[in-house]
User: Fold this.
Amino acid sequence: MGSLPLTVCSGLLVVAALGPAAQAAHAADGGTLAAAPAAPAPGAEVTLKVSGCTGSQAVAASRAFTADARLTGTQGVLFGSARVGSTVGPGAYEVKVTCADRVVDGRITVAAMGKAAMDKGASAAPVDATAHFATVATSGSGPDTAQAVTGLALASIAAVAVGLRARRGRRTR
Assistant:
């Protein structure tokens, strides 16, 4: 193989190898998570709003939630709700929202359920807050345009290289 095809192939291999790293860096650069109420009590329902996702679906997971929350929306803003486990203690809990193109990390703070709330008739059934069910949205999965073009270019170059190698092998016999 000559120096030009070797250089081109090496360059494409470097781009292909660094593509996932560049995409991971892109995923870490944006998106916000807002929760209402700001400090929910155990057993309360929380409304989640995520901005910065390009897909129309996402999944929010947290140890504080009784189950993963499905978020839907358009134009980069997704909404959904989750229930805080009734046995979850007060404190800060990480929330990880998995979108089609990135992961948005956030945090909710669970407030202690005070005596006043219990006197007003607030009650919550015991729920196992450790259950974690993963949901994957397949509608936005798969390679994006740049990845597809890179894959096709690499496959084309490989096919040409094999053809040239076979042709060169026939000439030397």
User: Anything to note?
Assistant: The first strand starts at residue 32 and ends at 36.
